[in-house]
Specification:
This protein is an alpha+beta fold. It is built from 9 helices and 10 strands.
Length: about 280
């Protein structure tokens, strides 16, 4: 993979060409520019894997704060962030682009037989295929494939090679079709009568109990400063050991846990693997 260029000069160069940029800290997480968001105090919600405002008064980080204004880039509070940044990110949709993020060799092989050739950039494990045009962003549209365009950011890893082509319908269709097993859904098990509270009803269906458990799991993941993979796995294991056999977990709960893991740099595939491994260990 091409070494990541120096962050600030690269950011200024990209901004001058009309590409909105933002700094990334370790773990590919955006910096928070206001006191509320520093140190992930707001939970990094503007990472914007799903729409939603930052918890501070303004969109101070994430894709929504990406800018082409050099005065903003070099002045506080971003000046300190660029000195600590480990990478440059950009908002593809803001630049009129779509990035097809291919996470492994299988995904690359699929793209070469399915998608029209375009500009490509090597990544740590795969490639970014960059097309001209914008669309809805979506993760895990198929195994090892994410789409980053509107309301998303992508790491800048160099100009790439090849001629950029227009966004094809084959990519747009990926965001509309129901993706094949984006995340494993827990089995809807039936609790035998008399084995739980309320005359056989699942004891975890109390909204407060379940919500508190999911919120604590999200907090445990987002607060991790090291051993992210292990923390995500242990947290998934804890949630499943409590709620995995009674059927009270929904896709919405799993989505929240996956989103928390992705704010710490985990890929959708790593989330799926950790969830599957936790279920296997518990015999679910």
């Amino acid at each position: 993979m091409t070494p990541t260029p120096a962050p600030l000069p690269t950011a200024l160069s990209l901004a001058a060409s009309g590409v909105p940029v933002l700094p990334l800290r370790r773990g590919k997480v955006p910096f928070g520019n206001c006191p509320v968001c520093k140190g992930s105090g707001c939970g990094d919600r503007p990472n914007m894997k799903a729409p939603g405002p930052c918890l501070c008064p303004a969109p101070c980080h994430g894709w929504a704060a990406a800018t082409t204004d050099p005065a903003v880039i070099v002045s506080p509070p971003w000046a300190a962030a660029w000195r600590r940044a480990v990478a440059v990110a950009y908002h593809p949709g803001g630049a009129g682009l779509t990035v097809v993020d291919l996470d492994d060799a299988d995904a690359i092989a699929w793209a070469r037989t399915t998608l029209p050739a375009t500009r490509t950039v090597p990544t740590t494990r795969g490639e970014h295929w960059i097309y001209r045009g914008t669309m809805t962003s979506r993760n895990a549209v198929r195994p090892g494939v994410d789409i980053k365009s509107a309301m998303a950011y992508a790491r800048y890893l160099g100009p790439g090679t090849g001629t950029m082509t227009d966004l094809p319908d084959a990519v747009r269709d990926l965001a509309v079709k129901t993706p094949p097993t984006v995340r494993p859904a827990p089995p809807a098990a039936t609790v035998p009568a008399g084995s739980g509270a309320g005359g056989g009803e699942c004891p975890h269906r109390t909204p407060a109990f379940l919500e508190r458990g999911i919120a604590m799991a999200e907090q445990r993941i987002t607060a991790a400063r090291s051993a992210i993979h292990a923390t995500v796995y242990r947290t998934f294991l804890a949630v499943l050991s409590t709620h995995g056999r009674c059927g009270c977990l929904t896709d919405a709960h799993v989505t929240r846990l996956f989103a928390a893991a992705q704010t710490k740099g985990e890929s959708p595939r790593h989330c799926t693997d950790a969830w599957t491994n936790a279920r296997t260990r518990l015999g679910l």
